[in-house]
Design goal:
The complex is a heterodimer of chains A (64) and B (498). Helices cover 39% and strands 0% of the residues of chain A. Chain A has 64 residues and is mainly alpha-helical. Chain B is 39% helix and 16% strand. In chain B, helix 1 packs across helix 2 (104-128), helix 3 (163-181) packs parallel to helix 5 and helix 4 crosses helix 7 (335-354). The chains are: A mainly alpha (64), B alpha+beta (498). The interface between A and B is large, with 45 and 73 residues.
Chain lengths: 64, 498
Amino acid sequence: MAEREQIRRPAPRGDDEVVHEAPTSSETGAELKADIDDLLDEIDDVLETNAEEFVKNYVQKGGQ
Amino acid sequence: MAVHKVCGIETEFGILHQNPDADSNPVSASSMLINAYVNERLNGRVDWDFEDESPGVDARGVNDHDALAPVIDSHLINAVLTNGARYYVDHAHPEMSSPERFDARDAVIYDVASERILQASMEIANRLLPEGQELVVHKNNSDGKGNTYGTHENYLLDRQTPFGRIVQHITPFFITRQMYIGSGKVGSEAPGLTIEDVPFQMTQRADFFEEEVGLETTLKRPIVNTRDEPHANSRKYRRFHVIAGDATQSEVATYLKIGTASIVLAMIDDNVLPRDLVFRSPVSAMREVSYDISLSNVYEMASGGTMSALEVQWEYLDLARKYGEDRGFDAVGGDDIGQDILMRWEDVLTGLETDPMSLADRVEWIAKLRLIEAFRDRHSLEWDDPRVRGLDLQFHDLRPAKNLFSRLGMQRVVTDAEVEFAIDNPPARTRAYFRGRCLQKFKDQVVAANWDSIVFDVGTDALRRVPTLEPLRGTEAYVGNVLDQCDTAEELLDRLGA
């Protein structure tokens, strides 16, 4: 097996091509929690009103 | 010197026809969906050409009589798009085989463009359907009830590369890459496992792999598929057909999926990988890695000793870094993209090792897990609650008003402008350019097209077939000027000497 010799540098950030709108890992836990709470509020409005029925009816034919 | 890793992605989408008066018929729903798009956007279609299709040929060079060769339903709609893709009905699903790509970044652009085409198809079809009916498309790989459908990757390999070497080196890579390419799933569909055993796993597909190597794609699915149908010069090339991956909406996941595999396959072409990185039980390891969301398992290796999935991935990354230093990354599109893939690969491995939740804006299964955990917490729900299953399913729902993934603020790799362009235009750096441009410019003279040829009818003599057996010819650099200068298909054929 190849000898382990790489140095695990801290994760670099993405390059210039990337459009960063996303939260970065430097955010604190409290900020992430606030984000997800806002998201859950938003999601409650778009969730299928009858999830049970939708899940039950979601049957696919097998493919490849 | 490794063959350039020209690549492509085929995706079978989930489809549902919501109709209060009848059960959903997936074949007619898929036809309606694609017809709606083709009729409105393409103004008449060019059909796929089945000449040279041979999906039953086995790369191991043996004739496996027990294997079920894939069936092609040639009577169903099967169109070629102006971006070079094939859009058709396959196995009761709408399928998009997006055009051949030069590198992993182009692969992401066309994968996202395919989503947009499916969304446009839904929007058009639903305008045509009676009130109260709707077609719904999901970008996922399982219905949660034991039925799966595929997202396949394709990579160009050197014909001289022995298939046994590919199997040996790619299998451990496929088993362990699930940690960053999976789109996540609630529960397990493997026989005998309950929600208590597997509440959540990394991938949609791991439950369905039962063999190490084989030709099948619809049952007894193998980790390494042996279909040998190059769609190119078969003396020079193989097309390596990969069935062990998830459809991903995360651009970072798609980019890493294609980018890392391209590098590993280039290393396999060049035979630079060590021989001792082999799992003792690959089929069970495939599932165990997917089920181990705490990343704590270790696995027995064939050479003795144990390794974690992360240790295996660090090993591949080390080897890839060394490969880049020694030989460069021309085979995957150049050193810039090669180094960028390495950087993002290291980024996700570091995150998985130190704080997986820090990857919730990049790795799809972690994004889904974070969302579901917060939802369960808020509503005090068990894993098997239908609302949790519903959230899992709706994560993949491509209706913009319903899709949950798009609300998560995930990192991007490509721009909306690039995606928008790719909906109607081919990639510039592969033969898909020639196919797409011919369709844009000479649609009425193109009778049919497929991956390795285009057939013209210019009205004078017999039909004329232009072969495109070299995936890196027919590019903008090769034929852009000629295509710009020719006003008729006849002129083009004369200029090309066809």
